Amino acid sequence: MYMMFFGSSVLLLVAMAVLWSIFQFRRGRWLLWINVVLFVGWCLVTFIAARSIGWEFVRQIFGMLMPMVFSPFVLWFLFAKKADWMRIVKRYAVIVSWLAVFMIVFQIPAFPTFATYVLCFGVPILVFFLLYVWEKRLAGKWKRGWIAFVSVILVVVFIFGSLLMNATALNASGDDMVMDWGGGKDLGMKPELDVTKLAGPKETAVTERFQFTAATKKMKVPDGSTKELWLFNGQMTGPAIHVKQGDVVEVTLTNENIKDGVTIHWHGYDVPIAEDGVPDISQKAVAIGESYTYRFKADTVGTFWYHSHSQSSEQVGHGLFGSLIVDPKNKPDDELDMVAFVAPKYIDNEGALISSNEWPKQLLKNTKIRLRLTNAHNKPQKIVLNGVPFKVAAIDGNEVNQPTNVEGKYVQIPAGGRVDLTFVMPNNAVRIFDAKDESGGWVFQSERKSAAPSKEIPEEAFQRESYGIKMNSGLDVSKGFDREFTMVFDSKLAFFDGMVHHLWTINGKLYPNTPMLMVSEGDRVKTTFVNRSYSHHPMHLHGHKMLVLTRNGKAATGSPWWTDTLNVAPGETYEVAFKADNPGIWMDHCHNLDHATNGMMMHLQYDNVYTPFSGHTHE
């Protein structure tokens, strides 16, 4: 609905600007009445959108631009019988209507500032005053050709200046970053904690050791071409870490030739901050020829993954990632595990499924299967499983309470997210594939050879918030929250690297000037995500799991929905909660890693924790 509102607003405002421009050359009240109809249509679209998705999503556009769009009609009514004034009104209508179009396409931020209000309210007044001066005082002294030429130059300078100014915000020092206490208070002096001291177990406790080497390698990718990949131990995907609950894992990372340095982040696994693998927050990036050792206790069962967090938009895309699977101590012996990734866009633009182990082409009837799927792509992916009823057994490593059979639905996995699908092999073929890569995927044959299931993509999506049976979540929110934050996502355009790019804002700011969310250990924290942009934003909070409370104002009713990577679609609002029980300075960012690179990052900081490093992460 939000995209319909945004797109309709752009089209209607452009149409109105065109009609006002025609008024300069042709008379006819029908032009005015068509413009009135378009204006009323815009108001109606806004009303419908506000009723459907909430005023929060429309106030940004309608509230800021309404004075611009409505003012020409008011002036027309006031000066309709004065020909000399009507010349000014017509020129004014053309300028402010196109300014409104420019504002909606280029400039409007998520949180309007004083400067933006001056632009939206003050500039039209200034324009009318200047037009009055020109008509009444300067007409005949300045040739219209020069006026038009200077106007065009000013518009071009304004547009490019805005794009350049937006781009420079990415290189800010962070001095304008504010600390958001979420309505709570700083609890006073506490012993300060260095992130390097908040580390994992000692070496003597290690039960599982791994050696990783990051290096470049040319190899064939799913589309058949040969590319230079950046890999751990020369494998695509990286070496699988498959351990049991209670194991203490040690991974020693050596950088052979990755020039910008590498780290390892344990995505979704709540390790101590010193083991989190974020350069310039928990460690320095591992330079060429250097090594770094990570240790953590595998106390949480589930499907997770690891990837480099240094220049991650580039390094994950080139292949520096792998699986982390933690089995329960008493895992059933009759369940067959299969692990796969949706490939990053560099490896396969459409997001082909790639396996981290060889999947069998034939399965015995009644074999119990668990498909562990991870999305390493930047965008949400539709996974289709045809030929058998299945269960969504886990989301982001968190088991669903009493899952039921799913049929005729696709499962959407957000960028960075994971799902476990379980099924019992029937006496016919089963197909699993990514909806964007229908020619890929796998077909599992049973003992009785049969035609492969169709490649038909279901229209209905699996809905997580109502799936499974409700139970105690383990997080008591009945007493309210100690901190409450709101994060509004939006976008703006910027000019850099020779092209116009989208920048992605949080509360109108770009990293490093995005707000720092401040908490104290033990706080119950509530965060509201509001997506007013046109793109999906899979929000990933390091070091914590989030409990989804509501989606678009409706409470989650199924099994408790715990997640570390929550996809917030355009026009959606989510409320989530978590317990601040893992001291550190934690990243909170969009896991469309291009969005993170272009501004959509921030940090969650415990009030007594500091880092000896620079404090600016490099996405």
From TrEMBL:
Residue ranges annotated for the Plastocyanin-like domain, each copy included: 216-330, 501-607
Might you give the EC number(s) for this enzyme?
1.7.2.1
> Does the keyword section mention Lipid biosynthesis?
no
Which key words are in the record?
Copper, Membrane, Metal-binding, Oxidoreductase, Repeat, Transmembrane, Transmembrane helix
Q: Which GO terms describe its molecular function?
A: copper ion binding; nitrite reductase (NO-forming) activity
Protein residues bound to Cu cation: 267, 307
Q: Which SUPFAM superfamilies match?
A: Cupredoxins
- Show the Gene3D superfamilies listed in the entry: Cupredoxins - blue copper proteins (2.60.40.420)
Organism of this sequence: Listeria riparia FSL S10-1204
Q: What is this protein called in UniProt? A: Copper-containing nitrite reductase
Subunit-structure text: Homotrimer.
Metal-binding keyword on record: yes
